């Protein structure tokens, strides 16, 4: 499946179509020379560009303020690229990303996002997923605290639900599970894994007082899911007043 | 009637004046050679630019997130151009538009917006209309659900009503009908047609939990109508608290 | 008094300082040749640039949507320049402005803003004022309707009050009078004149369901007053919930 | 400690990393020639660029409207640079900054911000701090008035708290003290000093009906603190409805 094209300027819109030169396959890209462990994990330009675009898009919406939020894209069955810890998501460069394995262990230099285990959980459980986005919005933060006792936010009857892959009717409802926030991210990932697994009916989840995790089979789909869910959370928030 | 000029960069402001080179008539444009059915429906550059500008303008306001929303402009008495289905309205290009007839049948390659029948209904019933805009805003989504039982949103006494063509006083009220959202868009278009026809006193309508449909005798007028109605919906939403 | 400098790119920030080449006096500028009534009222480049900047600044804040809002700057004791009627305030050009006298009569070609009498009232009554801004914001629209019966909005105890010329303490309160909106703008101007005159303690007023009028001794001061008052109206609106 | 690099274009993101040429140490910079008191206090280019970037960043967020807000960076143990009084923080230039000592006395030409004593208090009491930001947001203004009787805003349990230096868990709470606004800024600074001193557990404070003061060991850290606290204040404001 071609998800993004080779590009000098890769722009991933919410449809996932990379608007670049778009000729070569992305995932293999420039993997490096045989025999060099560092170069084996060299970050392909396209993957870097894709991830930077996703992070930048979310930051521009106000969903990754004060170095919050984290974003990743899959490289292959065993590795993904994630934003480093504690950086301004509106000013990232390729050197601010690093490659990790599906246990979240860094394979290139640097300190990965503290929430890497939550990304790894998605990639392990959902083989078709190639991008994960974690955003911090006011709506997600407020609603996840207000509705923690219920355990989920219900999004029901909205046309915008059809922006979520596989949903072709507004006459439906989805639940966004809410997990209590947890300092031990590994334990949190284990809990998410135990409760959600790779359930295709789950499009994302909330961490109380924290934010939203969602994903997609491409960076564009992940961006579309973030936009749709954050929009719906705002609708729910305003509808409660 | 000259509604937009020939331009390399056509910018349609809310007044409908195309700020381009502005020399040639727009509607005929470069229609193609006799005898070629594909080229007969080739999309004139000006129409494409006009429509892209309208979509981009609405997307920039946050009213077409996550590939939602759809926009169209009339080509002639029998055809209009509409945005294709499922694309990021902030990153459209000419190839993302297609020509359809007034029954909504595509005349060029591609899959038109799923809501094409609603656009076609407007063009059939309202011969003077040359642009249709469908937006998804938080205010429209929330209010259309809250007031569905009433069947309409009343906009009364606002100065901004004078931005709607034909209204020259704030001492008036208009109703935005609210229709229950419907999966069968053809059936929905039939219902809208039966209840609204081409009533000149109706400036737009809402689909519950979905969004706003409005239109104009030019793309600029449609843009102005969208801006005015979305502004007023926000005023109503804030005024209810 | 030098209020703005000659510039190719005049940028009027909220302090009123024109950040351009800044050499020549603005008000006289390039007035035209003796004996030509049209050229007598030719719009000086600097005045045009100043006014375009003020309108653009307010439009960018969302306070002049759907061609609403109007803006003016004084040329001399007898004339001012105002934005023409019904145009997108985010896309104005010099040809979209026209010169009027203090009775609001156009002195150059075009149709002035319908609300010209309200601008003229300010210039007649307040000789030191050189710019007037009329904005349409959600906060101003909602509050002016909610508090019409009281007849004014009280802004009390805010630090931001010190952005209003002549106010050097937060330990004060000002009132923004609210007038019922009126179709006969001339009559409205007469009413405003009768009730407010040129009272220096009045920094602006609201038209119910319509918007804000405010002014300044320079375009920068007017911009600062608009920003300060619109900010405070938002604080009042949010503080009521 | 290297906090910012030498740069022609210094961009201070929220992480504090200056993305410029980044070679020379910032604090000493180009201090001037021995024997010239004016040149002794010449403003180093990097410090100017850093401060302009911080002010611009906050202004772009809407937190310094109508010339409100003020920002400073430390030069050395005895001096800091602060924005001049009454200027548009979105259009500042190097000449709009001036050097002051830790008593707030200007060492270069110009009128410093009226709130200079509050900045000086931070630099005197907190030797590690190199940047101070004072913002005016709707959330800070509204909440500081609503909760003045309590004397503080509690921010508890939010993940965003971890954006504040030294906080590595969401399972905590901080208090933002609220002081009544005061015309005599020197007296206010004395009060703040008496009540807060250089308490490391205090990340900022509010002035009622006025705004937020916060700081950082770098301009980037200060920017991150402003973003985090303003975000949390919005969450508290929306959570109260």
From TrEMBL, chains A, B, C, D:
It holds the Pfam family Aldolase_II. One of its GO terms (biological process) is L-methionine salvage from methylthioadenosine. SMART domains: Aldolase_II (SM01007). One of its GO terms (cellular component) is cytosol. The keyword Ribonucleoprotein does not apply. It catalyses: 5-(methylsulfanyl)-D-ribulose 1-phosphate = 5-methylsulfanyl-2,3-dioxopentyl phosphate + H2O. The keyword Transport does not apply. Its EC number is 4.2.1.109. Keywords: Amino-acid biosynthesis, Lyase, Metal-binding, Methionine biosynthesis, Zinc. Its cofactor is Zn(2+). Residues 49-237 form the Class II aldolase/adducin N-terminal domain. Zn(2+) binds at residues 134, 136. Binds 1 zinc ion per subunit. It comes from the Bacteria. One of its GO terms (molecular function) is zinc ion binding. Pathway: Amino-acid biosynthesis; L-methionine biosynthesis via salvage pathway; L-methionine from S-methyl-5-thio-alpha-D-ribose 1-phosphate: step 2/6. HAMAP family: Salvage_MtnB. Catalyzes the dehydration of methylthioribulose-1-phosphate (MTRu-1-P) into 2,3-diketo-5-methylthiopentyl-1-phosphate (DK-MTP-1-P). Belongs to the aldolase class II family. MtnB subfamily. This is Methylthioribulose-1-phosphate dehydratase. The gene is mtnB.
């Amino acid at each position: 499946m071609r998800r993004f094209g080779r590009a000098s300027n890769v722009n991933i819109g919410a449809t996932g179509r990379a608007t670049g030169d778009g000729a070569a396959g992305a995932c293999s890209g420039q993997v490096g020379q045989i025999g060099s462990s560092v170069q084996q994990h060299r970050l392909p330009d396209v993957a870097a560009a894709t991830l930077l675009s996703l992070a930048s898009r979310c930051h521009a919406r106000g969903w990754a303020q004060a170095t919050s939020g984290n974003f990743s894209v899959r490289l292959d069955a065993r590795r993904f690229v994630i934003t480093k810890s504690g950086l301004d998501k509106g000013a990232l460069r390729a050197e601010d990303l690093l490659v990790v394995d599906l246990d979240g262990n860094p394979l290139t230099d640097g300190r990965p996002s503290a929430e890497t285990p939550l990304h790894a959980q998605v990639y392990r459980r959902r083989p078709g997923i190639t991008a994960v986005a974690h955003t911090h919005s006011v709506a997600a933060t407020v609603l996840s605290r207000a509705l923690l006792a219920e355990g989920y936010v219900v999004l029901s009857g909205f046309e915008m639900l059809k922006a979520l892959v596989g949903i072709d009717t507004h006459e439906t409802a989805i639940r966004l599970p809410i997990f209590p926030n947890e300092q031990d991210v590994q334990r949190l990932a284990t809990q998410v894994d135990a409760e959600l697994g790779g359930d295709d009916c789950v499009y994302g989840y909330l961490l109380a007082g924290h934010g939203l995790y969602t994903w997609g089979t491409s960076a564009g789909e992940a961006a579309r899911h973030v936009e749709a869910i954050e929009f719906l959370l705002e609708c729910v928030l305003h509808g409660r007043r």
